[in-house]
Amino acid sequence: MDAGWNCCDGEVISGGPIPSLDPSPGTAATPLAAEHPASGAAPGPQPAPPSVPPATSATSLAPLGDPAQVLQEVFGYGAFRGPQAEIVAHVVEGGSALVLMPTGGGKSLCYQIPALCRTGVGVVVSPLIALMQDQVEGLRQAGVRAAALNSSLEPSEAAGIWRALEQGELDLLYVSPERLLSPGFLDRLSQLPLALFAIDEAHCVSQWGHDFRPEYLQLAVLAERFSAIPRLALTATADPRTREEIRERLQLQQHRVFLASFDRPNIRYLLRDKDDARSQLLAFLAERRGEAGIVYARSRSRVDRFAADLRAAGFDAVAYHAGLSAEVRSSALNRFRRESGVVVVATIAFGMGIDKPDVRFVAHVDLPKSLEAYYQETGRAGRDGLPAVAWMVHGAGDVPQLRRFIDDSEAGQAQKQVEHGKLDALIAFSEASDCRRQVLLRHFGEALAEPCGNCDLCLEPDTSTDMTEAARKALSAVYRSGQRFGAAHLVDVLLGGDTARIRELGHSSLSVYGIGKELDRNQWRSLIRQLVAKGYLLSDAESRGGLRFGSDSLVKPLLKGEASLALRLPPAAKERRQAPRGERGAAAPTLELAEEGRERFEVLRSWRLEQARSQGVPPYVVFHDRTLIEIASRQPTTLAELGTVTGVGQAKLERYGEAVLQVLDGG
Ligand code: ADP
Ligand code: ZN
Fold it and tell me: Which residue's C-alpha comes closest to atom 10 of ligand 1?
């Protein structure tokens, strides 16, 4: 995400008096995590500050409040990314802002670091409990004093958190909008020193965007009641209309907007012509066993079917859709978050709040409903910045159905128009001929000067070849058999098959019988589908899929040999074992490691899983894959050296350092 970014209009008006950066007990990041291992529940009351000398130097942050130092010592990162540094500086100085950054761009640090540098507690409004818990667990592992207040807590637990707040023992408080707006809550907050308000997933305030949450509308009250406290609204939705709605509704019009590039360079976009989605998916996944991923399908029944297919093929796949009970869904979600290598097959009901960083692929077996939806859904891959794949099969057949969904919806005429337009953008993306990423970013108002080199069109040469002769054979077969049979029978005829139907109809005596052995069944079907998509053939709904000639102006020149036709066909079955170039070896983040390094990585990974299990937290809050890969490759031999690895902050070094060195030592 280091690509260009810019600040949009909007005057710079700081949200109030510049706060002092005086040290205060409330700003110190003490290593409570070590004493209260995150257990998945909120912390109980935090007793008096630790009397023993703090185990990590995180505490020494208090008098410093220097963002770069907090970044290194607490989070273990050497440099800010993209606009982070500027946003952090702006908020530390008391400024409010709207931050637009893609998923995985690093929004959290934009408020977490200012909350640690400023006096008082940072209040983070977040719409999903699961998301809050992950964040809180991750922060505690890094030695930050964080807690979440939401409806899943017992009253006594909530009381404990309030006590900690009142004693200045928390740096970050996550809270659901419902909680924040409940009677008396804001009064109570107003008694405390507050570092900032962060409003995560701020697009929930927009009725225009997806995920509208009515209670978000009332967050405008924060601007009125806490005019001196910086407010930071964050979202991964870039659509200008949604952006304006957020600014207006959260009263941020007078404040800065930080816009990061929406490019996700680590995501490889691979699109395929839909042929047989099931076998295409299995072929794509064949090389990615053991990787965590999401497969999106259009309907509940398709989700169930694909999940069953994947399980039958030996994948650890779970289904997720709104038709399943709450328990089944939450168990699917939990397995996905806490275990490695789980594939969730889902409708679009699965999405917001999935901040698992190591999702290695997102596969679409059906077209999503817009390019925005595609971007959001694929954006859940590779949040950790390591290589990931967005794979999709698309076919002309998906489009009429999506159009019908729009037409049959309850929306007004104007809204339907908009929806059709959004679908058109997706179709244009799927039909792009140069570079997918260029089309995608152009849609979001960003220009990418050069082709990306990381999409199917950049990686795989155009393989369309002259198919005039084959197309003529197919058209002849349609004509000779009377323009009333569907593709399956026509292909049987072309291949010279011996089916009951052919015998019954006497079709083995047709002149076209058996003339098409140069292509296999799958290729013929693809060719016929493309003839339909291009208008050479029409599919007759009344005659149950029977095919007849399309317009004369197309068909005649082709049959007479006056026109030619180039098509891209799937590889023949016997060649298909070789995956297309874009799919080969893509996105195996450990690939950069030599064999031996990969073994070390696996050992570190099992160690991490053990750690995570014993604490009841997701593995990635202990260490990200990226960190384990760096450790496996650099093989540090001392704590000091280990401390320089990305993602190893002071608290984690204290807590896990010795164990990691031992694992490397073979112990
Ligand atoms: P977002 O909320 O924007 O989707 P996150 O805040 O979850 O993204 O950050 C995505 C990932 O990038 C996290 O794993 C985070 O730790 C990591 N990250 C964020 N900023 C940096 C940085 N400056 N250096 C290294 N890693 C970072
Ligand atoms: Zn490209």
Answer: 104
